[in-house]
């Protein structure tokens, strides 16, 4: 039996090969064998190209409509202690007056 890597999503050791992809039967995650190095190399950049890191402070550069809120998130709002995630919205944060929120890095500038 060959030694296959554990699933990067759930850590299961029950992975198998299906064509050119590795598959996890427990969580259904599929990945290509060379994708591990590329995922670890992902760099998050703000609207002007500065590299972002966990814990940075950023400033919103554009008025953003917020679903379920009566007002928009105004340009110039400072967001402290961001957390970067690998999703469509790159930034998880907590904004005073709005609460927990997800932002796209293209709408912020490093403070």
Brief digest:
This protein is mainly beta. The protein has one helix at 35-40, and strands at residues 16-18, 21-23, 30-31, 58-60, 78-79, 83-84, 91-95, 99-103, 108-110.
Verbal overview:
The protein is mostly beta strands and 111 residues long. 5% of the residues lie in helices and 25% in strands. The protein has a 3-stranded antiparallel sheet with strand order 1-2-3, with no helix packed on it. A 3-stranded antiparallel sheet has the order 5-4-9, with no helix packed on it. It has a 3-stranded antiparallel sheet with strand order 6-7-8, with no helix packed on it. Strand 6 and strand 7 (91-95) form a beta hairpin. The longest helix is centred in the middle third of the chain and has 6 residues, at 35-40. It is elongated and about 55 Å long.
Helix content: under 10%
Main sheet strand line-up: 1-2-3
Supply the helix-strand structural class. Answer: mainly beta
Poorly predicted ranges (pLDDT <50, ≥5 residues)? none
* Number of helical elements: 1
Nearest-integer average pLDDT: 88
SSE layout and pairing:
Elements: E1 16-18, E2 21-23, E3 30-31, H1 35-40, E4 58-60, E5 78-79, E6 83-84, E7 91-95, E8 99-103, E9 108-110
Antiparallel strand pairs: 1-2, 2-3, 4-5, 4-9, 6-7, 7-8
